[in-house]
Amino acid sequence: MDEKVKRFIRVDHAGEYGAERIYSGQLAVLGRGPHAETLRHMRDQEVQHLETFSRLIATRRVRPTVMLPLWHVAGFALGAATAAMGAKAAMACTVAVEEVIDAHYAAQQAALDTDEALLNETIERFRLEELEHRDIGIEHGARQAPAYRLLTAIIKTGCKAAIRISERI
Predict the structure, then answer these.
(1) What whole-number distance in Å separates Cα of residue 84 and Cα of residue 10?
(2) CA–CA distance from 136 to each of 53, 88, 145 (Å)?
(3) 58-115 pLDDT per residue, tens
(4) Phi and psi of 63, rounded to 5°?
(5) Distance (Å, rounded) from C-alpha 67 to C-alpha 96?
(6) Residue 42 and residue 23 in contact, taking contact as beta carbons nearer than 8 Å
(7) Between vectors from CA 143 to CA 141 and to CA 146, what angle results, nearest 5°?
């Protein structure tokens, strides 16, 4: 397996870990409200994604990122902080994260060799679920969140930085 594929598995594992933590943070704040079921649905899908990449980390002998402890705290904090700003801000966070992940997964798919068809199929399935999450966020008023453009720009910048860091260390 080449280094590119190892980077892909490492960063995707870290990203799905972070996504689960974001939704857990949002549920800690909004877990008894009208959006709880929707947030649980999205978190449960992220858990399935994480379990898949955890298996790939083990079976393909890929070193996980050393940043997991930071992503543990940062993901939960991002989720809780946006949820504390209100349900629409939590949904804006979802939209921002999932738009970055869509582009990230699409770039990975374009770079994968044909001998990685199973990984490509897995990434495509997860990419479509992430787009579902984005659409759910939009349907639940993400774009009406206070300072939507600023909030999503900040979150997207953080996600892109986390991706670059997790690919390498």
Answers:
(1) 31
(2) 24, 11, 14
(3) 999 999 999 999 999 999 999 999 999 999 999 999 999 999 999 999 999 999 999 9
(4) -70, 125
(5) 21
(6) yes
(7) 100
